[in-house]
Amino acid sequence: MAELSQSDAVLRTFRTQSHFTLSADRGWTQRFQLAFTDVRDGIRLWRLSWILGLSDIKLRYRGSALGPFWLTLSTAIMIASMGILYSYLFHVKTHDYLPYITVSIVFWNYLNTLITDGCNCFIQADSLIRGTRMPFTVHALRSVVRNTIVLAHNLIVIVGVFVIMRLPVSWEALWAVPALMLWLVDAYALSLFLGAFCARFRDVPQIVMALLQVVFFITPIMWYAKVLESHPKADLLIRFNPFYYMLEIVRAPLLGRPVPVDVVLKALIVSIVIFVITAFGFARTRGRIAYWV
Amino acid sequence: MTHLTAFNISVDFPLYHSENRSLKKTILSKSASRFGRDRNSRPVVQALRDICFTLRSGERLGLIGANGSGKTTLLRALSGIYQPTNGSLSMEGKLTSLLDPNQGMNMDMTGRENIRLRGYFHAMAKADIARLEADVEDFAELGEFLDLPVRNYSSGMVIRLAFAMATATRPEILLMDEWILAGDASFMEKAKARIESMVRHADVLILASHSAAILAEWCNRLIWLDQGRIRREGAPMVILEEYLPSHQFEELVKGLDVPKLA
User: Fold this and answer.
1) Which residues of chain B are within 8 Å of residue A48 when distances are taken between CB atoms?
2) What b/e readout covers B139-176, taking b as 16+ CB neighbours within 10 angstroms?
3) For residue A11, what pLDDT is reported?
4) Given an 8 Å threshold on Cβ–Cβ distance, is B120 in contact with A19?
5) Residue A9 falls within a domain, yes or no?
6) What is the pLDDT of residues A188-209, one digit of tens each?
């Protein structure tokens, strides 16, 4: 027993932070271990991701008078013009349509850039990746942080529209908070998978961007979902559209509508699919990312 | 105890893009040895083959070899950046690698912001970051440039900052690529003094360089890389005598004697 405890102590001293081993690919057990360590170490370095994401925004607007509030302003201009134009085109009341399009556009832009930036999260960080050993998950978190800061600036537009239109805000709106949490985790996972996939296949970011444009038109973002109720075939656009469920769990509470249980369940299913794909995809590709970027 | 062991490390680079394939064909006709296929019969470059060595406390290893012999790739593999295709790497000690002067630096941020970024990278507390900042400021001697974006620095200033940041965090294993030689004479003296104090504390240094004088002066062991393999290994002067053309080696011996006489 004494011998055993001694070897245990030796093991423990060897497992200090500075101990590091890395061997050639040894199959799935090692891959999952390395991926798990990567996620854990990346979360420990959250302040690094935060500073990197924050400085991405700061540097983009360094020297400009309005700074990142250009984000707010350009969104406000786009929404004001779209809201007025499309409420005429669709023959709907501006008073109802403007809040709808504001929330839809702000969150669609968030979702859109989360995905497209996620695609590039490793490609953009190539000099960091090849310069030093660092958890790969730092770069995924950086992309999520950056886009969430952009969202924070655009939320001002939503608040502005609600104040100007004197819309009532109920406590129900708070359901958007857990929904957004789910978005953050999904975006983090999806960035890990898409980032690695896109580093290997450089055409994928372009394909994803093109597809997202199509998704923008076939998802109820500018138009109401109820338009399709009388068209059983077109209704499939909504029923099999993961983007619709993800968007709806955030949008509905903010617009004072309850979120149907089946929408929440389907959003959760979408998230689980993302997690499973990422768990295998990231574990499989992690060791190769440095070769690909 | 600080140590670093490379056990049979091999690294293959995948060749994915079509331009690489045509490049491959052209080089293939000249030297067939380094192009192969992996298990899934994809074309690869065999960047490193069966690299095996152990470094213990106080050892300063120099890597020498022609362009493309695998020096930088070996440094990256030892840093844990490239997962080896074969073999394994094991180490005990805090490792810092200085592979590329701009690495980890954001060129649009000021020097000071970059130092803080490095602090966050090492998960330091606020007080430690302040200490790091003071230490780097003192060593790099950049004066007011420290508050300007790194983009405005001369290449020598970037090197000062990068070296100061890398060594201020007290690495136990330091990996450096040859660009450090671009510093001016007074900086090189300071850098050498700092490396020496580091190695006196039983730490490990690995330096890749083309400068025989630097290697002879800084290192106590050399590995000669050739086509991704270890060709020779041993005491610096022994390896350099074989590696260098004879007249260059004589000049090197003469050059090394001058400071000792003075």
Assistant:
1) 117, 120-121, 123
2) bbebeebbeebbeebeeebbbbbbbbbbbbbebbbbbb
3) 39
4) no
5) no
6) 999 999 999 999 999 999 999 9
Chain A neighbors of B96, CB-CB under 8 A: 132
pLDDT confidence of residue B24 = 54
Q: How much is the pLDDT for B257? A: 61
CA distances from A92 to A89, A100, B2, B173, B187 (A): 8, 11, 72, 68, 72
Q: Mean pLDDT over all residues of chain A?
A: 89
A184 lies in some domain = yes
Q: Look at A111-115, B50-54, B92-96 and tell me which has the smallest mean pLDDT.
A: B92-96
Among B178, B183, B187, residue whose Cα is nearest residue B156: B183
pTM: 0.87
Confirm or reject contact between B108 and chain A (CB < 8 A).
Answer: yes
In a domain, A192, yes or no: yes
Q: Do B88 and A287 touch (CB under 8 A)?
A: no
What's the number of domains chain A is made of? 1
Strands, E assignment, A161-290: none
Domain containing residue A66: 27-292
> Is there a domain that residue A7 lies in?
no
DSSP letters along B212-254, please?
HHHHHHH-SEEEEEETTEEEEEE-HHHHHHHHS-HHHHHHHHH
3-state helix, strand, coil in chain B (%, to 5): 50, 25, 25
ipTM: 0.83
